[in-house]
Amino acid sequence: IDEDVASAVNEAANHINRMLDNPAHISALDILRWPGVLASSEQDFGPARKAAGELFERTVSELVTVREREGERLRPLFEDRLATMNKLVAEVRARMPELIRAQDEHLKNRFEQAKVELDPDRVAQEMVMLAQKSDVAEELDRLEAHITEVSDTLQSDDAIGRRLDFLMQELNREANTLSSKSIDARVTRAAVDLKVLIEQMREQVQNLE
């Protein structure tokens, strides 16, 4: 307690009380709450600051180690799903010629059953247009390219979280297009399986830097 300041505050309070018609009582606690009455000696926080800095550095180092270990555990998860995706893409690619031929035969049979006489050239044009609409070769190529890019990115020692997140968006876009162009239930199932695998990887990508 700074006795000089406390005494001065008390004297000032008494002086004001004498001036007032209805003086207010001032207690010892009121005086103690006055700024400057209670003084504290300066403390040396150097040792605490040093200890906090060392603890922070150790914590960051341990965090990096844990995140690296977590990343290594996630790598097989990505690799397994990428391998399954490659297999699905290859199966769809191998099946497409057969599906397009079956679609052509189906349309020709429907024309014959309807006994509609159509211009052969016109029929050929329609078939070409339909084949173009159902052609997913470009989507399959891009899926394979993105899968390869994800696999290559996983080998990098740099931060890859943002890049993988972008690649997941691209993979999902191609899977959606494949589904929208599907002319067979098996292709639709493959597209759905691809989207499930992509979503599983996308959730894990959120755990990567």
Helices and strands, in N-to-C order? Answer: HHHHHHH
Domain count: the total is: 2
- The residue fraction in helices comes out at over 70%
Structural class: mainly alpha
Question: How does this structure look, described?
Answer:
The chain is mostly helical and 209 residues long. The chain folds into two domains: 3-32, no CATH class; 75-205. The chain has helices at residues 3-19, 28-32, 46-114, 120-134, 137-153, 161-180, 185-205. The mean pLDDT is 83.
Please give a quick description of this structure:
Helix content is 78%, strand content 0%. It has 7 helices and no strands.
List keywords for this structure.
mainly alpha, 209 residues, 0% strand, elongated
Topology of this structure?
Blueprint: H1 3-19, H2 28-32, H3 46-114, H4 120-134, H5 137-153, H6 161-180, H7 185-205
